Amino acid sequence: MNTNVILKELTLEEKASLCSGSDSWHTQPVERLDIPAVMVADGPHGLRKVKETADMSNQEAIEAVCFPCACATACSFDRELLSAMGKALGRSCRAENVDILLGPGCNIKRSPLCGRNFEYFSEDPYLASQMAAAHIKGVQSMGVGTSLKHFACNNQETRRMSCSANMDERTFFEIYAAAFEGAVKEAKPYTLMCSYNKLNNVFCSENPFTLTEVLRDKWGYNGLVMSDWGAVNDRPLGVKAGLDLEMPSSHGINDARIVEAVKNGTLDEKYLNKAVRNVLELVSKFENNSSDIVWDKEAQHELARKIARESAVLLKNEDGILPLDKNKKIAFIGDFAKVPRYQGSGSSHINSFRVTSVLDAVKGICDVDYAKGYDAGTDEVNEQLINEAVECAKRNDVAVIFAGLTDLYESEGFDRKHMKMPQNQLSLIESICEVCKNVVVVLHNGSPVELPFSDKVKGILEMYLGGQAVGSAECDLLFGDANPCGKLAETFPVKLSDNPSYLNFPGNRDDVDYKEGIFVGYRYYDYKEIEPRFPFGFGLSYTTFEYSDMTLSSQTVSTDDELTVSVNITNTGKVEGKEVVQLYVSDKQCSCQRPIRELKGFEKVSLKPNETKKVVFKLDKRAFAFYSTQAHDWIVEEGDFTVSLGSSSRDIRTNCDVYVNSSDTIPVHLTVNSTIGDIVSIPQGRKRIESIAGKVSADMSSAQTDQTMGAAAQQMVEAMMWEMPIRAILSFTSKPIMTREELEAMIDELNEEINSAT
Ligand code: BGC
Known about the structure:
- The chain has a 6-stranded mixed β-sheet with strand order 9-14-13-12-10-11. The protein has a 5-stranded parallel β-sheet with strand order 1-2-3-5-8. A 5-stranded mixed β-sheet has the order 17-25-24-19-20, with no helix packed on it.
- It is α/β, with parallel strands linked by helices.
- It contains 21 helices and 25 strands.
- Helix content is about 30%, strand content about 20%.
- The model has no long low-confidence stretch (mean pLDDT about 95).
- It has 4 domains: about 5-65 and about 75-285, TIM Barrel; about 300-490, Glycoside hydrolase family 3 C-terminal domain (Rossmann fold, 3-Layer(aba) Sandwich), CATH 3.40.50; about 545-660, Immunoglobulins (Immunoglobulin-like, Sandwich), CATH 2.60.40.10; about 675-755, no CATH class.
- It is globular.
- The structure holds beta-D-glucopyranose.
- Beta-D-glucopyranose binds next to loops.
């Protein structure tokens, strides 16, 4: 398809029509010019292709494979695994003639309460971007597009279509945008989906800052941007800002507004042409796709099982209660043992072709006793169910309770109100712990919960929302056929009020002020020295690992070069296992506040007992950089950094220091209101202040005739002066040492000197 030729042949009305959907799941075709429609379908952890017979009131989807949700897969810290899942998803799309699978979502988990956290990866932008990139690469390797969503700062469901995420520039770039930036640059998603909300009071569907300045100009993105479903507020403004495609159809209403805006001159046609070109280029990507591809759902069910297994996080394992001894008497307790909760509600909901519960899966492995314990359809405590479960636990050596959050708690469209588990489950766990000393809790939830029972039970296995094969994966892990190897992609605080967004979530009507700034997740808990229930990056194994011989390729590195970091990891236990080696960087001294440590690399390594492997990381400039609001860019301040390697953010095993040489400078603009301290911190400024200081101290010593000013007082005066604007110097001497005009001229000269030197 020659887009330039077609663009010339299209009428204004046809161009406008190409910029919106024809229905919920297709773009508009232009038959006259052989421009076909593109078909999209929801994902991201399965294919939700709505049946051809569906209408607005019944959006039933075809049967598909439900893989674990992003909350789980992120814990795998495994790029290859995410790509394999993406590839399987791409295969299902090809078989079903779907061109674009909507997702993945890489919004940052600002609060554990966000109803859609189960669809997102992490509280950490680097991890989120890496997981999203791997997913995208997998899907797109099959010739199927993705739509990275929801751009940007859609971190809550409360008033999601009207609220404004208000934050400063550094927070935007360092945390919320960074998750998208990495994925966009590394994996080049065919499309991006803008979010419903506003960013600093401008709708993300008509925001030139996010859609053009950041996405296209700064990051070099050249794919298509579509709206989230119904996110469009002012369509012509959206076209101008860089929103190419409106989804779903506006039934021609907004197409007509585009035409009118071009005709009356309020929308320059060049913006419309840009959008149309992006649509045409997208359409052309699928020209040669055929559907003669095998979609083996059975094989994908097995893959879903493997992914669930590799993503689960073992949070507690006292006395080695796990893996379970098959010769012991075992009770499985809880409604979720029979009907597992394995995905969240809303647009990502998959019509699974099969679901394996842990009770199904355990057949053939060993006999277990079962009691329901609670009803997942309600929070109400059912004494009878609890009593039956207590009797069941008494008859057995070990009680494994399958618990977590129910659909009523977590969904697209609303946020949780608290972090507690349903009361009927908490009462059940409490009662079982009273009669049984060997209790294991297996959790099914899309986001952290408070765990008041964590000291009373011996084992906690976090499955998150583990997809349709979750029951088999649970058996694999519980009985030791697989070794847990997931690590938390988010912090589990002890209680909700520990969370940094607590005072400002979900905001005040439409205003959501991100007052915690860059201190999201572990960045906050570390800085505030708050002990979480389980820290970011934490996860146990049935074996143990030792870190040794950490080396850096050099003690000094320049920002133009890469630093190679290596370490030996040894499996010191008795069974095969996988360790996620995490690399954190700390800036030892910086002119601005920075987190104690930030994740900048991770590798997952598989080791047999006694085996040692070398794990290697490459760090570039970005690993040491922060976003400077003066430079409006990422910069590195020259100096000492610490590179740490650990098994979690709170379990650093080894570290080394490195000196980073950098020619980055922060642009400076001094005024008469700049503090003396700020001026002295610049070498050219220090010289000026020294000469002024000469005059000041001459003045002072003549005024201070009794010589009573001791050394301590002198120090205090100096400290006070440090914080003083330079103009104040004119008022604090007994006689003028310079005029205001002379001071202004000196500052102008200084600015010129500094900026010509950079
Ligand atoms: C959701 C999107 C989804 C779209 C289509 C919206 O409500 O926010 O994530 O892709 O619907 O179902």
